[in-house]
Design brief:
The structure holds two protein chains of two kinds.
Chain A lengths: L22 H10 L6 H17 L5 H7 L4 H7 L4 H8 L10
Chain B lengths: L1 E6 L3 H13 L5 E7 L3 E3 L18 E3 L9 E4 L2 E5 L4 E4 L5 E3 L2 E4 L3 E4 L15 E2 L4 H12 L4 E7 L9 H15 L6 E6 L9 H13 L3 E3 L4 E5 L4 E4 L4 E3 L2 E5 L1 E4 L1 H5 L24 E3 L12 H19 L12 E8 L2 E7 L7 E4 L7 E3 L4 H18 L16 E2 L1
Parallel strand pairs in B: 1-2, 1-9, 2-5, 9-20, 11-18, 12-13, 12-18, 13-14
Antiparallel strand pairs in B: 3-4, 6-7, 7-8, 10-19, 15-16, 16-17, 21-22, 23-24, 23-25
Helix pairs in contact in B: 1-6
The chains are: A mainly alpha, B alpha/beta.
The structure holds flavin-adenine dinucleotide (FAD).
């Protein structure tokens, strides 16, 4: 039995309901994605969730690096394989709308 | 007398000035248009200059020529916008303009200094952009004498204006070197922060196929961390390093600095704008058009044209105190040049990605969608004539502003 059993995900693996998110779910998603969460990852996750609450959208990388003390290089080491998408996934946010 | 102030006399500002002058009562409204430049550049033409397919002079015309005589055209840098006080400060003569309605059309520009090392030694030596007139002209001189080696095309980060232009550059480079008989001596690498050739799945797959067919190597998910001009390498945050003989860069695109200075922009100085009405999210008498907005539509001239149709109705209704009627659907139409005499056409909106099928244009259509075709290319070339003679002058032409599914295959 995993905490993820009751969580609904979209086709790309993003949580459908970001309100249902808990820190335990974040840990479980991270494990599934083979990412280890550190104290620094949580700086990003907490910031991303806050931004989402205010703006209704996952923050861009530029926004994260501008408003936290995590720089782009560190973001890539914390969330390998595309920090924007991975951070949003772990933070239980919708897929970043990103670009057109 | 009331003042309608337009900031930026590029595609959107000029188009809207022409529309407004016809619809606003001249006994009630004075229209003022501000830009720091005297020349209007046809930016889609920048793509053809590096290869010598366009002479630089065909993309430049005096701005004045497209601005109605009864509009006050001011040449000046815009220093500050103070939307809470409905006031704009200009650099020239320290002039202050009090406005009743404001339209922001200040576009977007490239910022190579955002990428570490890009502006060091190699800039305009073997590192070029083609998103500016100067960049395109300098690159044309370099390409003339380029006889072989690796060309790396790099998109630094999204969004960029005309998101298909870098692909078109790669396609045209393939064609250009084939014509010169040295394609076998030239390697073309396309590096992009996206996971494929384009932002939307169907188009990404189709365009990805074209890249493969033209023997252009794609390096996806490439987030550039650094350019090293002494080693001629470009690196990504995940540790990839690629050598180049020529780097064709599409640096970070940002909205005008004055937007940032005035505290009106997002992280990239784009103005938060209602994506349906094109009204500023914060100020009711501030409207935004074109590349300056943050709306999730392509930053393209065709989009500016579709937006203008919505915007004019919304502005007039607001002035008359009526509710906003028109809503913009994110409609974009792009010709993607894939060789000297071929191009693909894509047509999409906020909600519908580019699909295959045909695009029904009355009289001259239908154009096949997402398929290489000579006829489409004629469409692209005639765009220059349409731009100078119809679009900028705000004359309606037979392209329906609203996105339609007619002819598209799902
Ligand atoms: C290489 C390339 C290829 C392209 N190809 C296509 C294509 O095939 N099809 C298509 O539809 N679109 C294409 N585009 C995009 C198209 O050119 C733009 O989307 C369009 O011109 C945007 O219009 P705009 O009015 O928003 O901005 P612009 O036309 O860029 O105008 C902005 C104006 O604001 C002025 N300004 C900015 N800041 C200040 C200030 N502080 N003070 C005074 N003035 C200021 C500038 O001088 C400028 O005149 C291409 C663009 C490029 C670069």
């Amino acid at each position: 039995m995993s905490v993820l059993d009751k969580v609904k995900f979209d086709a790309d693996g993003y949580m459908e309901d970001s309100n249902a998110w808990t820190p335990e779910i974040a840990e479980a998603i991270a494990k599934r994605e083979e990412v280890t969460l550190t104290e620094r990852s949580w700086v990003v996750i907490n910031y991303a969730r806050n931004e989402f609450k205010v703006k209704g959208e996952a923050p861009t990388l530029r926004n994260i690096t501008k408003n936290t003390d995590v720089d782009t290089k560190e973001l890539y080491s914390l969330f390998p394989g595309g920090p924007g998408k991975m951070a949003a996934k772990v933070a239980g946010l919708h897929k970043p709308t990103g670009c057109i | 007398m009331k003042t309608f102030l337009i900031l930026g006399a590029g595609t959107g500002g000029t188009m809207m000035a022409n529309k407004l002058v016809k619809r606003l009562d001249p006994s009630e409204w004075k229209i003022i248009l501000v830009d720091r430049e005297l020349e209007h550049y046809y930016q889609p033409g920048f793509l053809f200059i590096p290869f010598g397919y366009y002479k630089p002079e065909v993309v430049v015309q005096p701005k004045r020529k497209f601005i109605p005589a009864n509009i006050e055209f001011v040449i000046s840098d815009i220093e500050m916008i103070e939307p809470d006080a409905s006031r704009v400060k200009l650099a020239a003569d320290k002039r202050v303009i009090q406005y009743d309605q404001l339209l922001i059309a200040t576009g977007t520009d490239i910022h190579p200094e955002e990428i570490e090392g890009m502006k060091d030694g190699g800039w305009y030596k073997n590192v070029f952009d083609f998103y500016t007139f100067k960049g395109a002209v300098e690159l044309s001189k370099f390409l003339k004498n380029f006889n072989g080696g690796r060309i790396v095309v790099n998109i630094a980060e999204m969004p960029i204006k005309c998101p298909v232009a870098p692909l078109e550059f790669a396609f045209l480079a393939d064609y250009y070197f084939k014509q010169r008989g040295i394609r076998n001596k030239v390697e073309i690498v396309y590096t992009t922060p996206l996971s494929g050739a384009f932002t939307k799945p169907v188009a990404s797959r189709m365009l990805g196929d074209v890249l493969i067919k033209k023997d252009i190597h794609t390096e996806p998910d490439f987030a550039v961390s650094e350019v090293n001009s002494s080693k001629n390498t470009i690196s990504s945050y995940d540790g990839r390093e690629i050598n180049y003989d020529l780097l064709v860069a599409i640096p970070t695109n940002m909205g005008a600095e004055v937007i940032g200075r005035s505290g009106m922009g997002d992280d990239l100085n784009f103005v938060p704008t209602n994506k349906a009405t094109l009204q500023s999210n914060k100020w009711e008498n501030v409207w935004v058009i074109g590349d300056a907005t943050n709306v999730p539509a392509s930053k393209a001239g065709s989009v500016v044209h579709y937006e203008a149709e919505t915007l004019i109705e919304n502005i007039l209704h607001t002035i008359e105190g009526k509710p906003l009627p028109a809503s913009f659907d994110g409609h974009a139409t792009c010709h993607i040049t894939s060789g000297f005499n071929k191009s693909l056409l894509i047509d999409f909106s906020y909600d519908v990605e580019p699909l295959t099928g045909v695009y029904p244009i009355p009289v001259i259509g239908p154009f096949p969608l997402l398929k290489e075709n000579t006829f489409n290319y004629l469409g692209k070339l005639s765009f220059k004539w349409i731009y100078w003679n119809i679009m900028l002058r705000g004359i309606p032409f037979p392209l329906p502003p609203a996105f339609s599914m007619a002819g598209k295959r799902q």
